[in-house]
UniProtKB/TrEMBL annotation:
The lineage of its organism: Bacteria, Bacillati, Actinomycetota, Actinomycetes, Kitasatosporales. Residues 127-264 form the N-acetyltransferase domain. InterPro entries: Acyl_CoA_acyltransferase, GNAT_dom. Keywords: Acyltransferase, Transferase. PROSITE patterns: GNAT. This is GNAT family N-acetyltransferase. GO terms for molecular function: acyltransferase activity. CDD domains: NAT_SF. It is an enzyme of class 2 (transferase). Gene3D superfamilies: 3.40.630.30. Its EC number is 2.3.1.-.
Amino acid sequence: MDLDELVKVRARYDAEMREGAQQDAAQARVERAGAVVRQSVPGLGWNGVLWSDLDEGTADAEIAAQVAFFADRGCPEFEWKLYDHDRPADLADRLRAAGFVPEPPETLMVGRVAELAQLPVEPPEGITLRTVTDEAGVDLMMDVHTGAFGTERPRIRESVLGMLRSEPENIAVVLAMAGDTPVSAARMEIRPGTAFAGLWGGGTIPQWRGRGIYRLLVAHRARLAAERGIEYLQVDASDDSRPILERLGFGVLGVTVPYMWSQD
């Protein structure tokens, strides 16, 4: 994609996926509150700010208002998902001053489904793909994530299970299997009525890396997206994933940093 197209796609992403965000769980609530769009959810769901329209005169008060809102709800933590084109230019400094702690940055990337769906999908030797449809499969996915990323995230387990049960048409979860052993896992989440599907959780256990499995899972999900008429795939890419995705044709829209606020 050239620069002009990337700017247009970023504007569309902001409008559809951030300002026009949809809830990511049946029990979640997405609402416009003043100059922000936020999601709140009970239990293990994701709480946070998805979009904002702030300036130097309004930013500090709006940050304080969101801290008060989530604190009053008893949320142990929430995320302000900051993008490098958000205003004001010093919003990151203001969030830190309010007690938010940044997590590692990720690169917001998009690719055209029509092109990505043409990638070869022949599995490496010894690998087969398995579609996840039930709790046992989700547990295998979580085992892979623990092996690949070294962390356990029960919130993701509950979110994926919830989508498989309540809106299975909007999620696709796939495992790469070496015999009976899961060695890589990834998912795609769809927001109806938008041009984008998100690729999430792509991870391979260390001893199986470098064999093209990550590429295979991207190509597989791109074909599923093409069948559903989706125009773009979106990824919040780690430093490890970014060069692979660039080689596959993804373009960079910017950088996003999760800013976390905690009651601790």
